[in-house]
Design brief:
About 75% of the residues lie in helices and about 0% in strands. By secondary structure, it is mainly α. It is globular, with a radius of gyration of 16 Å. The protein has one domain (about 1-125). The two termini are about 15 Å apart. The protein has helices at about 1-30, 35, 50-70, 70-85, 90-95, 110-115, 115-125.
């Protein structure tokens, strides 16, 4: 029975993480697009809008895949989602270092606290897709 409850917990976490990614991706493409553009680090060689659109599409795709995938496919998607969270971490660091306000992160303390959530997202993506 404990194994079944653990499976349900992982499934719920995977669906919630997927839903969060779908929401974030939708925000990238619509109502928060300009705010996301302002967060793109200068080291990114692409136009900020192109970066935001690509990130939004990626988040929607990953979120959908996380929500519906099972078995080996879910593990692969979890690894890809974890890699994505790692890839965008420099943007979070840049927001902190350059003191860029956005998404309610309007103090150094809030921006610093946010940095600690990214490793948690990586861990959740991997844990929720394990068997």
């Amino acid at each position: 029975m404990g194994g079944m409850g653990n499976h349900r917990g992982r499934r719920l976490a995977r669906v919630l993480l997927g839903t969060g990614l779908i929401f974030a991706g939708t925000a990238h493409l619509t109502f928060a697009r300009e705010e996301f553009q302002a967060q793109v680090p200068d080291l990114v060689p692409l136009d900020p809008d192109t970066t935001v659109v690509a990130s939004g599409i990626t988040e929607i795709t990953l979120g959908t895949a996380l929500a519906v995938s099972q078995g080996r496919r879910a593990r692969r998607v979890g690894a890809i989602a974890a890699a994505f969270f790692i890839a965008i971490f420099p943007g979070n660091i840049s927001q902190y270092v350059h003191r860029r306000n956005g998404f309610g992160l309007d103090t150094d303390r809030k921006r610093l606290a946010r940095l600690f959530f990214q490793p948690a997202l990586v861990a959740l993506a991997l844990w929720s897709t394990r068997r």
